[in-house]
Design goal:
Blueprint (H helix, E strand, L loop, with lengths): L7 E12 L2 E9 L4 E3 L2 E3 L6 H13 L5 E4 L3 E4 L5 E10 L14 E5 L1 H7 L3 H13 L3
Parallel strand pairs: 1-7
Antiparallel strand pairs: 1-2, 1-4, 2-3, 2-8, 5-7, 6-7
Helix pairs in contact: 2-3
Length: 138
Amino acid sequence: MDPDSAEVKAAGCVVHRRGGDGVEVALVHRPRYDDWSLPKGKLDAGESWEDAAVREVEEEMGTRGALGEELEPVFYRDRKDRSKAVRYWLMEAGEDDDFEPSDEVDEVLWAGPRDALERLSYDSDRDTLTRALELIDQ
């Protein structure tokens, strides 16, 4: 399936950093859905997939980083039964960390791979994280 043909287009990142115990990945908690997911969001009109991914990470986490390798896109039906495509990239976390809780994201959790996989609420996010971890030098 072509992501450009989806009714709803979103982009996000698997944000990672080096911690004292190895690689950590960022998860965001969305109070509206009471779920844990990877940072992502819908494209604004005229916005590129890549720009949306960077913007969403900055808005949701308060960090800005450079996009790395693109991951396999995810396709599913959203809560309104529309076709949705999400394109993800790897992103190494930047030094800036200006997270401020909001109605959209009220918590950011940095976790090791095993804990992150257990905490994620959706199988599609677990699949994306699993593929990303194969590419991240651990």
